[in-house]
## 1
Amino acid sequence: MHAADASQIAGAADLVFLAVPDAAVRDTCDALPLTAAHAVVHLSGVLGLDCLQSAAERGARVGALHPLQAFPAGSSESRFRGIYTGIEASDAALTGELEAIARALGATPFSLAGVDRAAYHAAAVLTSNYVVALHVAAAEVWRLAGLPPSTARAALAPLTLGAAEAIVERELPQALTGPIARGDVRSVASHLQTLQGDPDHAALYRALARDLLRLPLGLSEETQVALAALVAEPGSRSA
């Protein structure tokens, strides 16, 4: 059945998914003629269940199902295969239903109950949206090197694909390559030297390097200290 407007949906289904922008979830829920016969589920990563309060007050069961995946226009259900999907619901029965749906789509469900949803969603954004931001930064540094900006995306994208494949296959310390993994103090110093005239990207480089140095990379203490000193925030003291 195809519904001509949102008010018809609740009459046609007892399980309703709100696939709308986050800012519209509450108002959409409020507008639907939901009753105790319904369950309503939003797909937001950052919102909890409180945005569905009006449905809960009318006796409806409420929940959230957030797939850790991007869905460009025209995507199919095949993009669920092999991913993780966060789930929270107001009762065990709906939790079970949503877990079953996730598994049927090929995903692995996990609980978002009690989770800091903003921090959880920020982690997802860092690993998805901000990879694009890294390519924006890399393209600018590519230009500073004297290379044509038009070639940056095609030249650098395979490095990102290779890193992503390594992360899927290996633990993070084993997936990492490059100067930090090798303990190559000289290369890191040269990168920071050339980025002196680009303070924003120098700061980004240092911040990301500090996170990499949290990994157990098997570096000597001398190398670890030298790298930490190089990438410390200006004016701070490295451990």
## 2
Amino acid sequence: MLKRIIICTLMLALSFMMPLSASTQNGNALENKLSAVEIMIYGASFPGGILDRTDRLEEHIYGESYMGSIFQRIDVLYSHVKETTEFMPSLLTKINAIEWMVNTNITNAPIQPRISQMENTLGIPTDVMMSLDERIEDLRKVIFIDGEIEVIPAILTRDSLIKVRTTSPINSTRNKAGDPIEVIVDQDVFIGSVLIIPRGAKGTGTVTKVSPARNFGRDARLEISIDSINCIDGNTISTFIGDKATKETLSATKATGASVAGIAVLGPVGIIGGAFVSGKNIDIPAGTQLYVQTSTDEDLFGVTVRR
């Protein structure tokens, strides 16, 4: 009953905020928002009419569908799944917090299979007739004291360091400029007892420049950027490989006696708008660890957890 009141209140608030031109809102934008919710829940968007897809999502997430304009309904779905506030963690934040409490890391799988996996891990029978909201509430009550996920506003300051590792190899002979890069966070980021970025969170970047090794001893060059990292509240923050991150990477690798960023360096190391290493052939293996730093102060929501 309380959930229905909250959702109906959100729809009513949105109806007052909606501009008169809302009925002419770009159809592509509406489709994109609906697809984003489907991808977060299932890992893929589905064909079919917007109304049928919205009904299916509401039934699956809430356990019932709602009246109201399609614009309001999709906005509420998106907010419910993705957008955390100080008073209400999103569905994504809830499963992130639950999964971290169980495994001390998170995965980047869609929400539905993550809920099933946590039920299996905790020995809770999966009831597909229950809504995702009901299933995640059962998990929450098992994991958290008093069954509450405490959401705390926090500021992650500019140039905060984040340790990441690559998930696939990057090579100066196989990769080209523009190729996407994926990393995952290799060490939790806390502010006090508040978890801001959990281990396992996804980050993305790009191969920005490749110069293959050439004849006459000319070394290869490979330049990359790590542009964004996902946080526990579902927000994405901007990152880069600057001087502070580079020094931390060098310091960490020297301390362990490893080569820079896990690479056998055959030439000088430097920074040009990102990170590059120089050598006859550059091969950055999967699992290579390095640091990135935040580009700006970031207003986020974290979760209080037991450590």
